[in-house]
UniProtKB/TrEMBL annotation:
A family per Pfam: HTH_31
Protein keywords: DNA-binding, Transcription, Transcription regulation
PROSITE patterns, A to Z: HTH_CROC1
InterPro entries linked to this entry: Cro/C1-type_HTH, Lambda_DNA-bd_dom_sf, TransReg_Diox_bact_type
HTH cro/C1-type domain: residues covered: 37-91
PANTHER family in alphabetical order: HTH-TYPE TRANSCRIPTIONAL REGULATOR (PTHR46797), HTH-TYPE TRANSCRIPTIONAL REGULATOR SUTR (PTHR46797:SF23)
UniProt KW Electron transport keyword: no
GO cellular component, one term: cytosol
Coiled coil region boundaries: none
GO molecular function, one term: DNA binding
Protein name according to UniProt: Helix-turn-helix domain-containing protein
Domain of life (superkingdom): Bacteria
Lineage, opening ranks: Bacteria, Bacillati, Actinomycetota, Actinomycetes, Frankiales
The keyword DNA-binding is assigned to this record: yes
Length: 98
């Protein structure tokens, strides 16, 4: 068995564990939110420190968030959006037209 087969088996086994899929989805969401904020910050030409100051956060908190290391609360997302002069749009959208 080569390394790729070993990794695929390990991944499949881990994804079958209770809560694994939910944890993966939370990590994906955190990463996507962090990427969106980083892109907006960079378009403004701001450093993480400048965004942190505008949002009332620490630079390290902004860095962790942008890296997808934390799942933010809605109030934190609101502060970041306000600091970036952006709208926060949280929606639940049906997957298919039923």
């Amino acid at each position: 068995m080569d390394e790729r087969e070993g990794w695929a088996e390990l991944r499949d086994r881990r994804m079958g564990e209770p809560g694994a899929r939910e944890a993966y989805q939370a990590a994906r969401l955190a990463f996507e939110l962090g990427r969106s904020v980083r892109e907006l910050r960079q378009r403004r030409g701001w450093s993480q420190e400048e965004l942190a100051r505008a949002a009332g956060m620490t630079q390290s908190a902004v860095a962790r968030f942008e890296a997808g290391g934390t799942v933010p609360t809605l109030p934190v997302l609101e502060r970041l959006a306000e600091a970036l002069d952006a709208d926060l749009d949280v929606r639940v959208v049906p997957r298919s037209a039923a």
